[in-house]
Amino acid sequence: MSRDTQLKERWEKLVDILSNQFSQGEDLDLDAIIYLIGVQELGKVHREFKKDEKLNLMHIAICRLLEPYGFYEFDFFDAEGWPHYKVKEELPPLKAGEQSVLMKEAIVNYFLERELID
């Protein structure tokens, strides 16, 4: 099976699992899944977040997802328990489609590590 086919199948399975758990019948999009990962990484799952906090959660998720690729490195937790990352290497310029594939691959790998999918 080609790498692209395997990624597509894993992505669809992951979207199905997460949508069934966190949505009312609608498939979650890439941004919603990134947000969920941010909440997971923060570890404060049972609370409401303000708009700016939601953006920060997405930033946390992106840093965590791209950490294995060498773009970010965990730095510290602040006094409120929010993780902070530092840039190790700037992301290369990517087209929108390339960004989407990179993020989907990183998300699939994140959930493979957690054994939610195989």
TrEMBL record:
It comes from the Bacteria. This is Uncharacterized protein. The lineage of its organism: Bacteria, Pseudomonadati, Bacteroidota, Flavobacteriia, Flavobacteriales.
